[in-house]
């Protein structure tokens, strides 16, 4: 509110008239009095106008403050919309893939207000591996076209695409083993898991060449899409990403880091990658609190993403890292690989920390690569803004030329069980 102004009208001697006796004023006196009155009126008019303008500005300021306070009260009452995360896995894109054929039905299902999900945009997209079929440069370039098109339609920046590789995203043609006859090898120098006996010799892993299996993934897909190289060193293949406005933190891992042509089923997470990612995540939280971006008591929901499952068939055999996840308050794991919907709860006996494990099925694998009677699938993850509730809508495409429709909803009526839509 503007400060009050104190205006003083000067009093001139012409306004003070003294007479010792009653008499009619002379003509000269009447003229002098009239002139004085006109002088006072001439001075008063601009003062009154200024005072009126000042009062008007004061009233406008009061009104503006009242409107601001009213708007703030209304804003406090309107809850922020829930967070939406689109989860795709096992796209198995080939060089002949038509992006419009793959994306058109998906975008229709997301936007359809009657039989679809009634969404124009999402907050994040997760792609949990097996993006291509054979990891060729041509397939990755087509995949980059598909994913960048999806991001454009959903008005998403590249930083909100959360992507990890799968076993179909490593270059199987990359030569990483060298054959040596036994007489040329000292068995004491062989490292478990880095060689394989064959005939009269050994296939010995070339550790310098081994990380190059993911070069096509990085060079032809990840870098053009996200404008940064994917780390080829296994211990660096654990990424922590904090999003302060949403109070979400993601951990991204390569569960195919030790899979090759000789050890096709050797899925898992590199221990060094797990340790470094969790430490990086903790450091991100500390620094955000020091900068005042997060309050001391602000809760952040932590989510992990990798390709292979940790439950059921084809699971990671050494999944002890899940205990590290639980102790570091990771609340959910999202994966792919098995081409079917899969939901489980790890650590359900703990009174403090449960870990939800959610598989997305296959978004693009042909029928011959999916379990019998299992359609193509994708998930929409909805997380409440208070980070206390999570819902998984699984959508299905029963025929390749058909439309996406409801399949299951998690949680179902029983804890840990999905409900059929």
Q: So how many helices?
A: 6
Distance between the termini: 59 Å
Mean pLDDT: 86
Tell me, what's the shape?
Answer: globular
**Sequence stretches where pLDDT stays below 50 over 5 or more residues:** 1-23
**Helical amount:** 25-40%
List strands and helices in order, with pairings.
Elements lengths: L26 H51 L5 E6 L10 H13 L12 E5 L8 H17 L7 E4 L12 E5 L13 E4 L2 E5 L9 H12 L11 E6 L4 E6 L17 H20 L10 E5 L15 H7 L2 E6 L5 E6 L8 E6 L15 E8 L6 E8 L7 E6 L8 E2 L1
Parallel strand pairs: 1-2, 2-3, 8-9, 9-10, 10-12
Antiparallel strand pairs: 1-13, 4-6, 5-6, 7-8, 11-12, 13-14, 14-15, 15-16
Give an account of the 3D structure.
- By secondary structure, this protein is α/β, with parallel strands linked by helices.
- The chain has 6 helices and 16 strands.
- It has helices at residues 27-77, 99-111, 137-153, 215-226, 271-290, 321-327; strands at 83-88, 124-128, 161-164, 177-181, 195-198, 201-205, 238-243, 248-253, 301-305, 330-335, 341-346, 355-360, 376-383, 390-397, 405-410, 419-420.
- The strands form 3 sheets. A 7-stranded mixed beta sheet has the order 3-2-1-13-14-15-16, with no helix packed on it. Strands 7-8-9-10-12-11 form a 6-stranded mixed beta sheet. Strands 4-6-5 form a 3-stranded antiparallel beta sheet, with no helix packed on it.
- A hairpin with a 2-residue loop joins β5 (195-198) and β6.
- α2 packs parallel to α3 (137-153).
- The protein is globular.
- Residues 1-23 have low confidence and may be disordered.
């Amino acid at each position: 509110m503007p400060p009050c102004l104190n205006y003083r009208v000067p009093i001139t001697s012409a306004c003070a008239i003294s007479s010792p006796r009653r008499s009619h004023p002379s003509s000269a006196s009447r003229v002098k009095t009239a002139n004085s009155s006109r002088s006072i009126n001439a001075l008063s008019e601009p003062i009154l106008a200024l005072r009126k303008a000042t009062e008007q500005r004061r009233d406008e300021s009061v009104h503006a403050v009242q409107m601001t306070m009213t708007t703030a009260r209304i804003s406090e009452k309107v809850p922020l919309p829930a967070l939406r995360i689109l989860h795709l896995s096992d796209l198995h894109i080939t060089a002949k893939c038509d992006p419009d054929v793959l994306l058109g039905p998906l975008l229709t299902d997301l936007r359809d207000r009657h039989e679809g999900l009634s969404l124009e945009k999402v907050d994040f997209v997760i792609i949990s591996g097996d993006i291509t079929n054979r990891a060729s440069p041509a397939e990755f370039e087509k995949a980059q076209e598909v994913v960048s098109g999806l991001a454009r339609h959903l008005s998403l920046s590249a930083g909100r695409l959360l992507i990890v590789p799968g076993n179909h995203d490593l270059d199987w043609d990359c030569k990483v083993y060298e054959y040596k006859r036994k007489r040329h090898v000292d068995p004491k120098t062989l490292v478990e898991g880095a060689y394989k006996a064959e005939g009269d010799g050994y296939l010995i892993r070339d550790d310098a060449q081994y990380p190059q299996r993911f070069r096509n993934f990085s060079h032809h897909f990840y870098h053009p899409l996200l404008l940064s190289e994917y780390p080829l060193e296994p211990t660096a293949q654990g990424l922590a990403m904090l999003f302060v406005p949403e109070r979400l933190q993601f951990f991204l891992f390569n569960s195919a880091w030790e899979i090759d042509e000789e050890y096709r089923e050797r899925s898992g997470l590199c221990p060094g990658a797990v340790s470094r990612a969790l430490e990086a995540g903790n450091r991100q939280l500390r620094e955000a609190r020091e900068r005042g971006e997060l309050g001391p008591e602000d809760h952040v929901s932590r989510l992990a993403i990798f390709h292979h499952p940790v439950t059921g068939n084809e699971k990671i055999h050494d999944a002890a890292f899940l205990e590290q996840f639980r102790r570091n308050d990771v609340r959910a794991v999202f994966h792919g690989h098995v081409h079917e919907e899969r939901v489980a709860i790890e650590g359900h006996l703990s009174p403090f920390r449960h870990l939800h494990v959610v598989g997305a099925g296959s978004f693009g694998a042909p029928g011959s690569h999916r379990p019998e009677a299992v359609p193509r699938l994708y998930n929409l993850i909805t997380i409440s803004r208070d980070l206390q509730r999570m819902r998984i809508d699984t959508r299905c495409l029963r025929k390749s030329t058909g439309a996406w429709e409801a399949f299951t909803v998690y949680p179902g009526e029983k804890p840990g069980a999905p409900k059929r839509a």
